[in-house]
Specification:
By secondary structure, the chain is α+β, with helices and mostly antiparallel strands. It folds into three domains: 111 residues, Beta-Lactamase, CATH 3.30.450.40; 207 residues, no CATH class; 86 residues, no CATH class. It is 46% helix and 12% strand. It contains 16 helices and ten strands. The strands form two sheets. Strands 2-1-5-4-3 form a five-stranded antiparallel sheet, sandwiched between helices. The longest helix has 44 residues.
Length: 456
């Protein structure tokens, strides 16, 4: 059904360029917009005949029908569907080319509006689908699968969630923020085949720019889906290759696949630097007034531009059924809150920290019942030294050289502390996996009960 407001706005624009009277009739044959306001609401017999019949155009010269004047009436159609009729009043030979141009213009605008409406419907579905995937622990499986089918996301794929945090990102120049970017102007590049210009946005720090880079990358596929969570976070459900075979080889290659998928985000650094340089030099390439070529105290070029390049990626757990996806996302969030990135934009992988995650799930009461006597018997200074030593060893996988560097002590000093720790607790974590588990659970207890924190 043609929208009356849309037709009225179209008539207002058309009448700026022609003196002929133009009418728009809907599928019932009712005039819903006209340059001649008195005709709005009238029934147009010829328009209804066009809508219900096979003809594409009718010349009304010499016809005698109520509310029908001499002129040309043409069908308005989109996608093979007859939507309405456009009529131009006047000498048929004179108004025929005008009617044809008006018809083409109206159909083009109508098709564009319909595409926008379809996109809005899709994005509303996508936002609800995202909410169910990430925020609702016990979603209705059939509801999830229904949305997924409508959006073109096959469930049979094994996917792994990647939460990308844009470090220092705020908004882009055009004011797009987080979820606002969900109102995209095109479908995912992997499904449309459309090539993306990774530098089109002009702001490296925005979620929109980062999404463009990822979707335009060589490792993006039509089975991936990605979206902005807020102004700093992007969530991607990356599909693993070979969805049919579900090969066990994916477990040995997925880290490299994730790294390659994230490689396009390296352009964030390059564009941010270029944007910063342009900001400092001005549009002519000359140095801006008041700039000495040196950075102002406390302000870098990137900060002046309003964004900083760089990101951190947190990679969750494999999932192959939509009702379980919320747990994969939860694992990403746990990594962000509890694990420090190694730097150099190296992803943080959940399975590398699985033991820490499982320890974090242990009820505090159980740890208290197991270890409270240890805490009450060990003097506070020794307890602090003990916690610092255990924490450094855990973080470095019991590499004494790296652990000593982390504590800013000589390696021999760390060995001495370790030997005292073994004697005090009666454990040897280097030779016994059970003793190592004991030590790490004791450390988890100390942290949970306000013990010494790990050094940064």
């Amino acid at each position: 059904m043609l929208d009356k407001e849309f037709a009225t706005k179209f008539i207002e624009r058309v009448t700026r360029y022609t003196d002929f009277n133009v009418n728009i009739m809907d599928e019932r044959g009712i005039i819903i917009a006209s340059r001649d306001k008195k005709r709005i609401g009238q029934y147009h017999e010829i328009a209804y005949r066009l809508i219900t019949g096979p003809e594409e155009m009718i010349d009304t010269t010499g016809m005698s029908f109520p509310n029908v004047l001499p002129g040309i009436n043409m069908i308005i159609a989109t996608g093979g569907r007859r939507e309405g009729v456009v009529g131009v009043t006047g000498d048929p030979e004179e108004v025929r080319p005008v009617a044809l141009m008006v018809k083409m213009a109206f159909e083009t605008m109508l098709k564009y509006e319909q595409q926008l409406e379809q996109q809005r419907i899709r994005e509303n579905k996508k936002e609800h689908f995202i909410h169910l995937l990430t925020q609702v622990e016990h979603s209705d499986p059939e509801e999830l699968r229904s949305y997924a089918r409508d959006l073109g996301y096959p469930e049979e794929s094994v996917r792994i969630p990647i939460l990308v945090r844009l470090d220092g990102a705020e908004t882009d120049k055009e004011g797009k923020k987080g979820k606002a970017y969900l109102e995209e102007t095109y479908m995912d590049a992997g499904r449309t085949g459309r090539a993306l210009d990774p530098l089109r946005n002009g702001n490296a720090g925005s979620v929109g720019q980062a999404l463009d880079l990822l979707r335009g990358g060589p490792r993006h596929s039509g089975r991936d889906f990605s979206f902005a969570m807020d102004r700093r976070h992007i969530l991607i459900y990356k599909a693993m290759p070979d969805p049919e075979s579900r090969s066990e080889s994916m477990f040995s290659v997925y880290k490299d696949l994730v790294r390659e998928y994230l490689e396009p985000l390296g352009l964030l650094d390059r564009q941010s630097s270029a944007a910063s340089e342009k900001h400092l030099s001005g549009p002519t390439g000359k140095q801006l007034s008041g700039s000495s070529g040196k950075q102002t105290s406390g302000t870098s070029g990137k900060q002046m531009y309003g964004t900083s390049a760089g990101y951190t990626a947190f990679v969750g757990s494999f999932q192959d059924t939509y009702p379980q996806y919320c747990y994969g996302y939860r694992h990403c969030r746990w990594l962000e809150q509890n694990v420090e990135s190694a730097g150099d934009e190296e992803p943080v992988f959940f399975y590398d920290h699985l033991e820490e995650y499982v320890r974090s799930l242990l009820p505090a009461g159980e740890l208290q019942r197991a270890f409270y006597v240890y805490r009450s018997c060990i003097p506070e200074p020794k307890l602090r030294s003990c916690a610092e030593t255990i924490g450094a060893l855990i973080r470095t996988n019991y590499n004494f050289g790296r652990a000593a560097d982390l504590l800013y002590v000589h390696k021999n000093t760390l060995v001495y502390r370790y030997n005292r720790l073994k004697e005090m607790l009666g454990v040897d974590p280097m030779t016994s996996s059970g003793d190592r588990a004991f030590l790490e659970l004791f450390y988890a207890y100390l942290l949970r009960t306000g013990g010494p924190e790990e050094q940064e």
